[in-house]
Amino acid sequence: MNGRKPQAMAEFRQIGSAGDEAAFATTNIRRGTRIIAEAPLVMVPPVSDDEELSEFLKIVNTLPEATVAEMVKIFCQPSVANGIKDNTYVQREVWGFHKARRWKDNDGNILQGKKLQKAVKKSLNLCAIYLTNNVQLGPAGKYGEGVFSLYSRVRHSCVPNAHNSWNPTIGRLTIHAIHDIKAGDQIYVDYTGNVCRTRQQRAFSLSATWGITCDCTACTKSQTDQLRYRMVVLDQALAAYTCGASKDLNFEANHGIPKIMTAREALKAAEELARLLRRQNLHGMELCKVYRECSQYALDGCNRAKALDYARKELELERTLLGMDTGHLKEGLYGAKYWFEHLQKKM
Ligand SMILES: [Zn+2]
Question: Ligand 1 centre from 228 Cα, in Å?
Answer without folding.
Answer: 12
